[in-house]
Amino acid sequence: MQFSLFALLSLLATTTTVAASALTITIPPSTLLPNPNVLPAGTHAALTSLPSSTQTKSGSSLPHPLTAPLTRSSTFVFRNLPVSKPESYLLDIRSPEYVFAPYRVDVAADGTVLGVWETFRGNPWDNRGQEKFVVDVADSGKTSDVTVEAKVLARKGFYEKRATFSPLSLFKNPMILLAIVALGFTFGMPKLMENMDPEMRAEFEAQSRSGPLSGATRSAMTGGGSPADFDLAGWMAGSSKGGSNSGAGGSAPQGATTGRDGGGSTRRRG
Amino acid sequence: MRLQATLLVLASCVPSAFAIYPDEVNHVDFHHALLGVPSSHSTFFLKPSPSSNASLLYTLSEQSLLGAINPRDGTLIWRQNVSRSSLPGDHGILRASDGANAVVSAVGDYVSSWSALDGKLIWENWFEGEAVTDLELLELEDATAAASSAKDTIALFGGKAGVVRRFDGDSGEVKWEYKDDSNDLPFQVSSSATEVFYISLQSALLKGNKIKVTSLDTLNGRQNHHVVLNSESDVSGPESVLFVGANTASPLIVWADKANKSLKVNVIGTKQVSTLNIENTSGEEIQSITVHTAKKLNSLPHFLVHYETASGSWAEVYHVDLKSAVASKAYSLPFLQSWSVFATSNVDANVYFTRITESELTIVSSASHGILGRWPLPATLSERGVHAVSEVVTKGDTVAVRSAALLESGDWKLIRNGQIEWTRYEALFGALAATWAEADDQEDLAHQLEVEGHESLIKAYVHRVNRHVHDLQYLPDWLKELPTRVLTSLVTDEVSNLDGFGIHKSVIVATENGRVYALDSSNHGTVAWSVKAAEADSWDVKSIITRPGSATVYLDDGSSVTLNTTSGAILDRAAATTQVRSIAFINDDGTPLAIGIKPNGAPMDSVDRPGFFVTQSDDGRVLGWSAKNSKSPVWDFAPVPGQKIIHATTRPSHDPVASIGKVLGNRSVLYKYLNRSLVLVTAVGDNTASFYLLDGISGKILHVSTQEGVDTTQPIASAMSENWFAYSFWGDATDPSDAKGYQLVVSELYESSIPNDRGPLDSAANYSSIDTLPLPHVVSQSFIIPEAISHMAVTQTRQGITTRQLLCTLPASNSLVGIPRQVLDPRRPFGRDATAAEAEEGLFKYSPFLEFDGKWYLSHTRDVAGIRSVISTPTLLESTSLIFAYGGDIFATRATPSQSFDILGKEFSKMQLLLTIVALGVGVAILSPMTRKKRVNQIWKATS
């Protein structure tokens, strides 16, 4: 009994194979996927729709959802679409790393593909996108094989990049840049001043004394340009007055009150 | 300002919170890509490329997975699931031919050909209702047809009548078919260089079967002639024929008489049957006879017959005279008191036989009995061998051999010249249950602390001092180890030594073949031990429950086996009682207790402890029980007529809640509806699915949602944690303006819809589920997701402070994805951008489509196939949750949903820190004399 049923089914299957058109999806090379041959063997396409309730009750001899594995030529072939009624399928292509655009595939009751459109997930099923294929009504007597091209939307990035230590990245830090500029001033300015002619130097000194330059820069010029005297933190905080001491205080206790007014204090002591 | 700062923090942590770093791969995770137990007739070495001499190991497993293994290290190169037949396919058939780059498989009514190098499809074909009984590749000698490298396939389909079909090697199209209209039983096909033979069993008049050989033309499939062999006295069915020769120069049919006294050999196509006496010197009854021949077309017509008795085995080698078609005995391999497995291999036309016994591996040529190579085996091969394949290389007089042997335990080992190169634990495929082992080394300390807690202040203090003095004995060892520990910590991958934080737990796995494995998660999941725990060949494990130091496996017949988790020794066995449906576990305080649940949903016995169960019964109801009363349920729940309960889920047993409310952007609070005893029941009807949220104590329905247009044949998964639950299904467009696709619905439960309101119960410390249980305020949102989810779980951490991830198994893309909870917040604003207050909460605009971000993939690029269940467990680190997936492959990883905030990451380099300190020290040492000098000079110069 079961065998005869199977035989009948197989007869049906062979007859529908004749009428039905095969649906082939090709993967063209694209900028995201220059060589479709790199896709792993697990890549497959699936046609999904709600099976009719009679189909589910009969134990579903038809495979569901329909899947097609990736072939050697980077295509997916649905050879015979076993349908009993007009069906509107969602076509997904699943690959571990690449995201493909979903398509809508409408199939007639005799298994011919009526049309293939792009579709958008989370949008009404009616909202069809770009048309990929639509059956020609004029010669509907002939069934032809349908070939559509898949579209790669994106490539998934699975990994987080680890921040690696590179000296170059140090220089991208604005604090470090500021520090370097400041260092340049402290070392470079005295040299510049020495090379200047005396008149101009006098003029510049007068100007900088009355000008808006912060105390640190002034002390850098007046205090002999010692790098150890320069208080970077204080300079960046913009504090011009108050008891900000230099770090070298510990080693030279008598010079604890040096700093930007160091010249004055030492003179007083003398 | 503060708001902006918070926003910045949120924005920086929401999008890129979880992905794995490339250098953590294989360090935080491990994966066993499995195929299942390789079947004996469909496993072989093959050179897929004609240009290269390298060969791969191919198999079609008993679970219908087709795969290629690299014989060098045992890694899987590709695999395909070929169980696409609608027929209940028994074991499949796999055939291939050297240098053809194609393997052809048949399972049930599905025939497919795959590219041998990369596993991509060449062709596939279905013949509905006709199961393939045999498959051969045509090896034609005439060069005309074999001009292309693709070899045609001959397949025999059984069904009502036997059909032989020839498939084109490139396109898979049927070139011809031959239908056998007689009522013979289709048995095998075989081919020689010039003809195709169809072998069927013709029932004789009285009893037994005659073997009928029909010769077919290779070009058009027409019948040339047929021969009937008088075998009715010996052959009672297909199982009596020992062998039908495949693709040798002289294909054979071999069968034995019923008393196993003589062997009958027929060269296919001739009428002659040679009768050979079996010289049984062992004095024991022969239990099985196996025939091994070479599979290559041009190989010598020699074959080996392997005789097995209860205690040992021997083999005899026969030669076939091609002219007279008579087989004669050449020599015999001695009887050994051990199991043996034999394998044949070819080098050009020469045939070599490899014999593996429990102690050694020997190799002989088919031409003479001299042993060409003999290697003793390591003692680890204690399990009985099932089958083996081998590959022999000759260089002058020396031979080298590598054999892939399958042992009874399901271990697949590659033995190269007597050395075990690798082992694949194929029995782990389709594991039934798994859980983490609990180490018992902390038990003693816990006990001591408990003692201290219960004593008076002074006594406890004395106890503690004593304990510390006692601990001093470990100090010298600790000090001795210290330098090496400091040094190694500078160079190891992991910055912090995490051994003490419960990261490296071993996993206990119970497999289908009645074995229990312990996988060492600190060492790439290697098998620490494996034991045969079942007394039968297979078992139905309901649950594994671990206690410190031991694990107990509970079976469906009410029995249980307890094992030591460190050694695998069987500590205890409990006898079978009655059939159980599942195991309930009471673990409130004191001794943990397991109670079996009968198929009708009733617990086996009642205990005098507070507690309640929710059980499912075989007749499709959900029952609630008090632990004290196993006679009658407190409540029972049945869905509406026409619906069937398929799944029920609860909150995990370890599910701490860090905060009882959710602080909104305007500093008001939405209080979570927290109920320890929630049950989410999934019931399906005709294209509908209903999700019932029940209170487990009273059975009261708290919330129902019904979805239309649901494909109930596709997976419907659900999970619950804290005050939220999620489920997914295939939802079809019932209306053209609906969306079509897989949907994920997430719902949150609150005490009230109004912030700062706690509903009728307010902040009552106690409430009754039975009298006045208020209904929760449910907020839901649904998303379209790109693919089906077959199983859901939730990450568990120690305190529940870390945000949770919804762990989803994606069967279509063979991966495991952890969706962060922030994304699945049903309060995401709909149709507008989030306001500043909402953004502060971490909410962003709702979009109906939820694409799985690559960074959410816990399995990253791994192909984790066939996962049936995912379990999660907390570690002592709040940030880290352990995840273990089983059921097909084995995959384990560590998830850090809010990033590893409590451990130093790999980017923290101790070396760099040390170098910086040294550099600073050097700088200070150089600069300080300089400055001192300068300052002194300055003073002198200024005063002068």
Describe this protein's structure:
Chain B: Belongs to the EMC1 family. Chain B: Residues 721-940 form the ER membrane protein complex subunit 1 C-terminal domain. Chain B: Its main location: endoplasmic reticulum. Chain B: InterPro entries: Beta-prop_EMC1_1st (IPR058545), EMC1 (IPR026895), EMC1_C (IPR011678), PQQ_b-propeller_rpt (IPR018391), Quinoprotein_ADH-like_sf (IPR011047), WD40/YVTN_repeat-like_dom_sf (IPR015943). Chain A has 270 residues and is an alpha+beta fold. Chain A is built from eight helices and eleven strands. Mean pLDDT of chain A is 72; it is low at 1-18, 55-61 and 240-270. Chain B contains six helices and 62 strands. Chain B is globular and about 115 Å long. The interface between A and B is large, with 72 and 77 residues.
Multimerization status? heterodimer
Assign an overall shape of chain B: globular
Percent strand of chain B equals 35-45%
* Reported CATH architecture of the largest domain in chain A: Sandwich
* CATH topology tier name of one domain in chain B: Methylamine Dehydrogenase, Chain H
Radius of gyration of chain A: 40 Å
Segments of chain A where pLDDT lies below 50 for 5+ residues?
Answer: 1-18, 55-61, 240-270
Helix content of chain A: 25-40%
Q: In the CATH hierarchy, what is the superfamily of one domain in chain B?
A: YVTN repeat-like/Quinoprotein amine dehydrogenase
Please give the largest β-sheet of chain B: 4 strands, antiparallel
End-to-end Cα distance of chain B: 55 Å
Structural class of chain A: alpha+beta
How are helices and strands ordered from N to C of chain A?
HEEHEEEEEEEEEHHHHHH
Structural class of chain B, by secondary structure, is mainly beta
Strand content of chain A: 15-25%
